[in-house]
Design a protein that fits this description.
Layout lengths: L2 E4 L27 H15 L5 H29 L1 H9 L1 H8 L9 E5 L4 E6 L8 H4 L4 H4 L1 H9 L1 H7 L9 E6 L5 E5 L11 H5 L22
Length: 226
């Protein structure tokens, strides 16, 4: 079942909760879930037996979380920016397009692409756990799974976006999409100004992971990697 939550952010004051997305030493208010504890215990045993190197494991996780994974989604976004026909087909039936590209599979069986416009900014959360389009974005970041993000993204999305450095015009509505085991969402960010005539490969460099979750905008053309 689809859960798209349209938020009314007007009203009284809401308690502030810090999110760990900018602070790697943020203290957790809750113990890790049982699966997380099992994974940590297994990692500890394998490390003590000398079967794995924690530094190498961290490097592998970082690669899949921040490099390999998000590049798949970035290619999809760049192609949508570059090819209007592809963009239209992607918005109409993302599953068919992603299947053709070989970007479907476990944790990405059904994906809906939602497009940012000057009138509407989309933001994705999973209020129950951490449902996330793995084939497109890799491993979900820690802050996406945090209790603070999951609660506050629904209740006060504009404040959360501001903490990520995104301030939107008052006339831009914010729509929050709740990912589930049945459907996952990918945000198609707005194409940066000044990129007319850019190749698809050049556009890929402007698409960051967070822009496809909706907690960031695409990188401006002036800040494109050399």
């Amino acid at each position: 079942m689809h859960h798209d939550l349209k938020l009314d952010t007007a009203g009284g004051e809401t308690p502030a909760f810090n999110m760990p997305h900018d602070d790697p030493d943020h203290p957790h208010s809750l113990l890790p879930s049982e699966p997380a504890l099992r994974v940590k215990a297994l990692e500890t045993i394998l490390t003590r037996k000398g079967l794995i190197d924690p530094a190498a494991l961290d490097a592998i996780i970082d690669t899949y979380e921040n490099k390999i994974g998000p590049q798949n989604g970035a290619r999809v976004v760049a192609r949508a920016w570059h090819d209007p026909a592809f963009r239209a087909a992607l918005l109409q039936d993302a599953d068919a397009i992603l299947d053709e590209m070989g970007l479907n599979g476990r944790q990405g069986e059904h994906v809906v692409v939602v497009e940012n416009t000057p009138e509407r900014h989309n933001m994705v959360v999973c209020t129950l756990c951490s449902c996330y389009p793995w084939p497109l974005l890799g491993i979900p970041p820690g802050w996406y799974k945090s209790d603070a993000y999951r609660a506050r993204a629904v209740r006060e999305p504009r404040k959360v976006l501001a903490e990520f450095g995104v301030t939107l015009p008052d006339e831009t509505a914010v729509r929050v999409w709740d990912s589930t085991a049945e459907v996952r969402y990918l945000v198609l960010p707005m194409r940066p100004e000044g990129t007319e005539g850019w190749s698809e490969d050049a556009l890929v460099a402007l698409v960051g992971r967070d822009s496809m979750i909706g907690t960031a905008l695409a990188t401006p053309a002036s800040e494109a990697p050399a």
